[in-house]
Specification:
five-stranded antiparallel β-sheet; 9 strands; 445 residues; Rhopdopsin 7-helix transmembrane proteins
């Protein structure tokens, strides 16, 4: 009897391993989920990388179900509703079996690791069940609930996943257990950078502009962001929950994200060190970026707190990626406008060499911004897909190293100094610059 629609499996497969593997982690590895009158055929509860000493504690309480369509059912129908574990390979094999109609429900597939079905519930209604399952085969697993009958199900689910290290529980997924120490290291790196930047600004206070103050604030926010994420992961590793550090993480994530895009836009426009004001179109870019960052932060909170089981998880994920792409594209336009403005100014004010130096600086910055966006969005994404789950921390290390390099480059190139070598040019360089400006006449986004 084919209880499970194959179309549902095809839909899940189309998004599952593109998004699930690469999504930000949920804030803690002990999860409480409330399901109310849910008829979904498949609910993805959690994802976790287990070692050979991994365990899953599963507790289900207040289980109530009903058959709203009142279809006739066999006596053993409750075996078609239950929980299971599956690796990527297990899931693909189970899906092939369903498409080939060798099994009618994923819970019947020998490929998956069946935890329990509703046929094992005992006692009076509402029912409950709890058990601890050792995971002997190390791999990255999905914890899923399957409802092949289309029943309306309500229940409270608690999952607790951990790996044993001697007598100690590690609640972080294999491959992520190194992340707290990684984030703390970067916290100290950014603290040192903030100290260096403060020293430079104090020493060169005569040439400090407002943009330099904002750049210092950005570095400080990045340091606090790294600290809060490190504390979040540290407490999750030890206890399974972040103990409130997720609130600090979301707050500093929002402030850091907004400040980063604002600083890139303002540097791209040349605000405060090339001109004291913003033009109308440049203000519009900021008016677009800031609300989008607010929306992105809301999406991040929803994704992190609700997890994969939420009905709107995929929608929020797509919204987050769309907002990020729009913001990344929007910040490039002010840089291009500045480049075109400098090229046009060189032809009219008789200062070709000085404008060529500025033009060179802004072109370099444009290339670096594009490279930073490409690496942190595309290359890191590819690393997350191709790297084994044992080495998830490598993609995070690559992301943070690229971010650090971007911060250092930006700070060095736009640092407050009284005699900028870009703008100290003689007459011969002036003539050479005129020729260069004539040869290099186009710059496209």
């Amino acid at each position: 009897m084919d209880y499970f629609p194959a179309r549902a499996f095809s839909y899940i497969l189309s998004v599952l391993f593109v998004w699930l593997v690469c999504m930000p982690r949920a804030r803690g590895e002990i999860h409480h989920l409330s399901i109310e009158n849910d008829k979904r055929s498949l609910i993805i509860l959690e994802q976790f990388g287990f070692t050979s000493a991994g365990h899953l504690d599963l507790e289900v309480r207040n289980v109530v179900w009903s058959n709203p369509d009142e279809f006739p059912l066999p006596d053993d129908h409750l075996q078609y509703i239950g929980f299971f574990l599956a690796t990527e390979d297990d899931w693909l094999q189970a899906n092939r079996q369903i498409e080939q109609k060798s099994v009618g429900c994923v819970l019947q597939s020998p490929a998956i690791h069946l935890l329990f079905t509703f046929s094992r519930l005992n006692g009076t209604n509402p029912f409950q069940y709890n058990n601890t399952y050792p995971v002997g085969r190390p791999d990255r697993y999905l914890v899923m609930f399957s409802n092949c009958l289309g029943f309306s199900v309500s229940m409270s689910v608690r999952t607790c996943m951990y790996n044993m290290e001697g007598n100690t529980r590690d609640y972080l997924s294999e491959g992520k257990t190194q992340l707290p120490y990684l984030y703390f290291c970067f916290f100290w790196v950014y603290m040192v950078l903030a100290g260096i930047w403060t020293h430079v600004c104090v020493k060169q206070k005569a040439t400090v502009h407002r943009i330099h103050i904002l750049m210092g604030i950005l570095v400080a926010l990045k340091a606090l962001y790294m600290f809060s994420e490190g504390e979040d992961m540290f407490y999750t590793k030890k206890t399974g929950t972040p103990h409130g550090w997720d609130v600090a993480f979301y707050a500093f994530s929002f402030l850091k994200g907004v400040m980063l895009f604002v600083v890139i836009v303002l540097i791209g426009t040349g605000w405060s060190f090339l001109k004291p004001y913003l033009q109308g179109k440049e203000k519009k870019v900021l008016m677009i970026v800031i609300p989008l960052q607010v929306l992105a932060n809301i999406a991040t909170v929803v994704i992190g707190e609700t997890g994969f089981s939420d009905k709107n998880w995929l929608t929020w994920t797509q919204l987050l990626l769309l907002v990020d792409v729009i913001c990344c594209c929007a910040v490039l336009f002010p840089i291009v406008w500045s480049i075109k403005h400098l090229r046009e100014a060189a032809r009219t004010d008789g200062k070709a060499a000085r404008n060529l130096a500025k033009l060179t600086l802004f072109r370099q910055y444009y290339i670096v911004v594009v490279s930073y966006i490409y690496f942190t969005r595309i290359v890191v994404f590819a690393l997350q897909i191709v790297t084994s789950y044992h080495y998830t921390w490598i993609s995070e290390l690559a992301r943070e190293l690229a971010t650090l390099a971007f911060y250092v480059f930006t700070g060095y190139k736009f640092r407050p100094i009284p005699h900028n070598p870009y703008f100290m040019l003689d007459e011969e360089e002036e003539e050479a610059a005129v020729d260069e400006m004539l040869k290099d006449d186009e710059f496209e986004l």
